[in-house]
Amino acid sequence: MFKSILSLGRRPNQRITDALYGEIVASARQPTFYSEWGVSDTPLGRFEMLCVHMFLFLDRAKGSTTALGDVAQDMTDEFFKDVEHSLRELGIGDLGVPKRMKKLAKMFYGRAEAYREALAAGDTPALTAALARNIGPEREVWPEAAHIATYVERSSALLATQPDDELLAGRVVFPNAGEGAGKA
């Protein structure tokens, strides 16, 4: 009881969550996405890349140990807390935040499902189309979306090799976007 009172609301996995989320954010901000592959370097473009990386982590954690499942839930909470904070930094007022959060949550889960289905089926064209539709909807043609699809496939494969113990220690590794996934 005293431990929970003295922790002042910090979750038991907070250190792990902070470390993992920091790696996910850093991976989502790799310059290659924005400078070579045409992802818009705007709040929405950065949100899209963060969604891709959160999806990859959550997909890896799905069906794993109970402890990793708990961390995955904490990661989801951290992600949405970060999104809400970003909305407020952009000047969205208290009355507008819940409506936008609901829309962004729907966007995230819709994207995650599309990416999950394409990855599970090994359908690279479907993954490329989903990424292009979500990350670059204003483009009629976006050949660099294929590079992002290759990166997502490489990331998923790499995450599958990372033991639960490493993830539970707060360590997650994503590939370097500029290596092995093609150049624009």
TrEMBL record:
<dbReference type="Pfam" id="PF03981">
    <property type="entry name" value="Ubiq_cyt_C_chap"/>
</dbReference>
<feature type="domain" description="Ubiquinol-cytochrome c chaperone">
    <location>
        <begin position="36"/>
        <end position="174"/>
    </location>
</feature>
<comment type="similarity">
    <text>Belongs to the UPF0174 family.</text>
</comment>
<comment type="similarity">
    <text>Belongs to the CBP3 family.</text>
</comment>
<dbReference type="InterPro" id="IPR014569">
    <property type="entry name" value="Ubq_cyt-c_CBP3-rel"/>
</dbReference>
<dbReference type="InterPro" id="IPR021150">
    <property type="entry name" value="Ubiq_cyt_c_chap"/>
</dbReference>
<dbReference type="InterPro" id="IPR007129">
    <property type="entry name" value="Ubiqinol_cyt_c_chaperone_CPB3"/>
</dbReference>
<protein>
    <submittedName>
        <fullName>Ubiquinol-cytochrome C chaperone family protein</fullName>
    </submittedName>
</protein>
